[in-house]
Amino acid sequence: MTHTAFIGLGNMGGPMALNLLRKGFAIKVFDLSAEAMQRLAEAGATVATSAADCVAGADIVLSMLPASHHVEGLYLGENGLLAQLPKGTLVIDCSTIAAASAIKVAEAALAAGLRMLDAPVSGGTAGAAAGTLTFIVGGEAADLEQARPLFEAMGKNVFLAGGHGAGQSAKICNNMMLGILMAGTAEALALGVKSGLDPKVLSEIMAKSSGRNWALELYNPWPGVMENVPASRGYSGGFMAELMLKDLGLAEQAALACHAANPLGALARNLYEEHVADGHGKLDFSSILKHFYRD
Ligand code: NAD
Fold it and tell me: What is the CA radius of gyration of the chain?
């Protein structure tokens, strides 16, 4: 039987690991937060005492951490996990990080006789809970096939974007567009409400008109317009604004590296920079509405 180690049990990793358990995978889990591990222990996961303990005896290692420096810190260096894993182990990092960082870790993994996929996800915390995530994979097709049962237990779409780092490149294009769309949706809703419109009626109109988009239709930023979205629970429990700021920064770095213009992505990054500086970094990213509408 395959033994899977799962490291990083936050807003995304927690529900993803729960879905693996529900689908019958044996998993051993680790997070720096004891509370996060407790939830998984109650659901039947084996709890590790450290990252090294978590990966001992695992055939597949999965990680879901916040940013590039967390991933490099976990895997690289003398005490990093790559130095401890037996040859042939498949390492899958699902965090959203810089493509350059994913390539650096993959090259170190390959040099150590391991296999590696970057496999960032899209679909939000609701998609993580429902097991409907999209996996955007970079690496070797044969390694993706070995990982496919795990991806299919946590998601419903799996794409091979290209070689190592390509999953991250595609994910960053997506999230740059998401940041722009969320800011634009919030701006339009604030304009409508200030013009005397009901935000729910305006959302229904735009959802059937040419302004329709994912942020408006599935993740509406106006409190009370939709049930079960962060805006309707005080912007808690979703995709933190500081993580969107990180992704818009990654998009800007990527654009600089390949001489692409990203004026709208840069504007969205500036809006999120101000929003985070205003103290909203831990709120869901749809709280950018507060930037346009102060009640
Ligand atoms: P989060 O902050 O809720 O969770 C991260 C978890 O990693 C935390 O529980 C933290 O304790 C743990 N952690 C950090 N360093 C660790 C280490 N060295 N060892 C063990 N555990 C460690 O973040 P999240 O929302 O779950 O996002 C995770 C990644 O997924 C990010 O890269 C984010 O950009 C991406 N993402 C998030 C969403 C979303 O809607 N939240 C959607 C798609 C992708």
Answer: 20
| Average pLDDT score over the chain | 97
Interface ipTM: 0.99
Task: Please tell me if the CB atom of residue 32 comes closer than 6 angstroms to any atom of ligand 1.
Answer: yes
Active-site residue, from 28, 171, 246, 290: 171
- The answer to whether the CB of 213 is under 6 A from ligand 1 is no
Fold for the domain defined by 4-163 = Rossmann fold (3.40.50)
Contacts 24+ apart (CB under 8 A), 31-40: 31/7, 33/9, 36/9, 36/10, 37/9, 39/9, 39/14, 40/9, 40/14
Check if 191 has its Cβ closer than 6 Å to any atom of ligand 1.
Answer: no
Q: 211-224, pLDDT tens digit by residue?
A: 999 999 999 999 99
DSSP for 35-73, please give it.
HHHHHHHHTTPEEPSSHHHHHTT-SEEEE--SSHHHHHH
What residue ranges do the domains of the chain occupy?
4-163, 169-292
- The pLDDT of residue 75 is above 90: yes
For the stretch 239-267, pLDDT in tens is 999 999 999 999 999 999 999 999 999 99
Of all protein residues, the one whose alpha carbon is nearest to atom 13 of ligand 1 is 8
Distance 194 CA to ligand 1 centre (A): 36
pLDDT for 29: 98
Q: Is 87 a catalytic residue?
A: no
User: Fold identical between 4-163 and 169-292?
Assistant: no
Instruction: Output the pLDDT for position 229.
Output: 95
Which numeric CATH code is attached to 169-292?
1.10.1040.10
